[in-house]
Write a structure and sequence with these properties.
single chain; about 230 residues; alpha/beta; four-stranded parallel sheet; 10 helices; about 5% strand
């Protein structure tokens, strides 16, 4: 069916499923996002936005218990701490001795990081690593409380963490020459990246903020991205 041509069969079926069939919040969220896409393709933009808003509400209801809600004040405090910790002077004085040149692609989710990685991976030397969890896991375990724990670390400890990161990547991608680590939210860890790898290369993808916001809101994302489902 081509919804753009005026065939509203799929829209009607999705609405019927929401009205009569789907009972769990997860199913209603999935159907709601599908309905939003269908209405958007049909040019029914206000109805599409309403469908997306309800889908996000259902998605929040379906999130596993115990996941933290987005806390704007706490996030602002984290950003302030990152700025205060990772000054150029601190990075220069404390950086590891690693000569490695890992390649990071980061930015907001839905900002074009996947496209940037695909372009880079078209080069024969570059291997696409995708959204690796290695660096966030280091920050969440070996460097807690982050970033406060950095104050007591010396270059030797940073050397060991850099080696740990590179060792895990080698185990996962033993034949890779240049590997992209495309974890969008690593933009919060750029200070750590430059401390571990002074020669690291960072591609920071950016998109018009309103476009980026809507793209996130119109997509069902991992519930751990706590800000995504609430305007």
């Amino acid at each position: 069916a081509d919804i753009r041509s005026g065939d509203d069969t799929w829209i009607a079926r999705l609405r019927q499923s929401l009205d009569q069939g789907a009972t769990s919040a997860g199913d209603r969220a999935a159907l709601g996002f599908a309905l939003g896409r269908a209405l958007d393709a049909a040019g029914e933009y206000e109805a599409a936005f309403a469908a997306y808003a309800e889908a996000n509400r259902q998605g929040r209801a379906a999130a596993p218990a115990g996941l933290p809600r987005y806390d704007r004040a706490r996030h602002e405090a984290l950003v302030d701490a990152l700025i205060a910790t990772f000054t150029p002077q601190w990075v220069q004085a404390h950086a590891s001795n690693s000569r490695a040149e890992p390649l990071f692609v980061c930015g907001m989710f839905r900002s074009g990081s996947t496209l940037a990685e695909q372009v880079l991976a078209s080069h024969p030397r570059v291997t696409s690593g995708g959204e690796l969890d290695v660096l966030p896991r280091l920050a969440a375990t070996a460097l807690q409380p982050f970033p406060g724990a950095l104050a007591s670390l010396d270059a030797a400890r940073l050397d060991a963490l850099a080696a740990q990161y590179l060792g895990e990547l080698r185990r996962r991608f033993p034949r890779a020459d240049l590997l992209t680590d495309k974890r969008p939210d690593n933009f919060l860890l750029i200070g750590l990246i430059k401390a571990l790898f002074p020669r690291a290369r960072i591609v920071h993808t950016r998109r018009d903020p309103l476009d980026n916001c809507l793209s996130v809101f119109f997509l069902r994302v991992d519930p751990r991205i706590a800000y995504a489902g609430d305007l």
